[in-house]
């Protein structure tokens, strides 16, 4: 009786939720990082049901995350985007693929699974090429089709400078990450910054849908250039992004559900425990509703500064030359997964703090023709530094 009541409560609350399209969610226990159980996931979903009915996880195999998440969602209206981890360790991906197909034989994927996401910023981390990730996307699509699940969309998650035509050709929809915070953007410019990226990616994507797979703003920790973490800035970015995304019918997954106290705090990532909409003790950061779109007026729509092909090429040059164009996951998130080399994770964390020396053309808005030409010339030179 108690179980039935809990499930009914979850189902009812999830059906009524409409504040977020979805939330990034790591089901590991918040204080210790211990592996989840069905009960701990069910408790998390009960809290999150006030805000959404969809979460995204990043690996079905790491810490056996897929099983308790799917089991906790049974007989509810919850949806999950199931992630498969991709790195330079092939066995990690293969283990995730094997577990995905096992779960497909146990649970009702057609009811519970809204997407399968192959990889998370593996190209940004230089652990895979776009061709390698694209091949893995096609591999998973074929495996799901063989299991009678071809209707489930399959995509890959990547930061905006690294979503190229090769990867776009393989995915069912473009799942792009963009974090103005990690570009050192002051909060008053963050809205235009992220939407300039979205518009340029839409040009590259053609007829394929573009979804913002991750974005957010931390409420505490160290500044990143002109980007300042604070509760008010987190709420401002939340309102401006979500209200505008709703107006423009852009789907998104907000990063993230909870502050995760178990993540290591270093000089390079002291914001990593502060991205959630819920505190680490599972109490809300904000009064409800967290944002209000009544009377919201978006800032002027920025114009694209480059063609789809040249924009992608130039932005990749900026990122490869040391620029922090968009948020990659911290080493604390990467090294937590099975098979990830700790030295590689540490080097990634160090690269995350490298200061951007040249502007990407994706970020240019409202410049004169002369300023644009100068900026692009500076960018071209920086690629060889």
From TrEMBL:
GO terms under biological process: cell wall organization; polysaccharide catabolic process
Gene responsible for this protein: BGL2
Cellular localization per UniProt: Cell membrane; Secreted, Cell wall
Keyword Acetylation belongs to the record: no
Signal peptide range: 1-16
Any one Pfam family match given in the protein's UniProt record, by short name: Glyco_hydro_17
Known catalytic reactions: Hydrolysis of (1->3)-beta-D-glucosidic linkages in (1->3)-beta-D-glucans
Compositionally biased intervals (Low complexity): 303-332
The species this protein was found in: Coemansia thaxteri
GO molecular function: glucan endo-1,3-beta-D-glucosidase activity
Region (Disordered): 303-337
Record's keyword terms, sorted: Carbohydrate metabolism, Cell membrane, Cell wall, Cell wall biogenesis/degradation, Glycoprotein, Glycosidase, Hydrolase, Membrane, Polysaccharide degradation, Secreted, Signal, Transmembrane, Transmembrane helix
Transmembrane intervals: 362-384
Annotated Gene Ontology cellular component terms: cell surface; extracellular region; fungal-type cell wall; plasma membrane
Name of the protein in its database record: glucan endo-1,3-beta-D-glucosidase
């Amino acid at each position: 009786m108690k179980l039935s009541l809990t499930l009914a409560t979850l189902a009812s609350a999830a059906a009524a939720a409409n504040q977020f399209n979805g939330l990034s969610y790591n089901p590991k226990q918040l204080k210790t990082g211990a592996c989840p159980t069905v009960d701990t996931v069910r408790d998390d979903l009960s809290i999150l049901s006030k805000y959404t009915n969809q979460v995204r996880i990043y690996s079905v195999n790491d810490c056996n995350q897929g099983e308790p998440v799917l089991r906790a969602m049974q007989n509810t209206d919850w949806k999950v985007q199931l992630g498969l981890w991709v790195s330079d360790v092939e066995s990690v991906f293969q283990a995730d693929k094997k577990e995905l197909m096992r779960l497909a034989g146990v649970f009702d994927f057609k009811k519970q699974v809204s997407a399968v996401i192959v990889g998370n910023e593996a190209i940004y981390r230089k652990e895979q090429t776009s061709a390698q990730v694209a091949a893995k996307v096609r591999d998973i699509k074929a495996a799901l089709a063989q299991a009678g699940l071809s209707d489930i969309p399959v995509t890959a998650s990547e930061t905006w400078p690294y979503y190229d035509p090769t990867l776009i050709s393989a995915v069912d929809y473009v799942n792009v990450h963009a974090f103005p915070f990690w570009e050192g953007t002051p909060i008053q410019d963050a809205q235009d910054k992220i939407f300039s990226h979205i518009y340029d990616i839409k040009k590259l994507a053609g007829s394929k849908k573009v979804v913002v797979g991750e974005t957010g703003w931390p409420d505490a920790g160290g500044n990143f250039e002109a980007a300042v973490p604070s509760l008010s800035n987190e709420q401002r970015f939340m309102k401006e992004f979500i209200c505008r995304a709703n107006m423009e019918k852009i789907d998104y997954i907000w990063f993230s559900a909870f502050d995760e106290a178990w993540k290591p705090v270093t000089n390079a990532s002291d914001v990593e425990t502060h991205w959630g909409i819920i505190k680490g003790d599972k109490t809300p950061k904000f009064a409800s509703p967290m944002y209000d779109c009544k009377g919201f007026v978006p800032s002027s729509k920025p114009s694209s500064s480059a063609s789809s092909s040249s924009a992608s090429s130039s932005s990749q040059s900026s990122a490869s030359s040391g620029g922090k164009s968009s948020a990659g996951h911290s080493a604390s998130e990467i090294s937590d997964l099975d098979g990830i080399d700790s030295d590689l994770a540490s080097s990634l964390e160090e690269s995350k703090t490298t200061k951007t020396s040249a502007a990407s053309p994706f970020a240019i808005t409202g410049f004169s023709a002369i300023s644009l030409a100068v900026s692009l010339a500076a960018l071209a030179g920086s690629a060889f530094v």
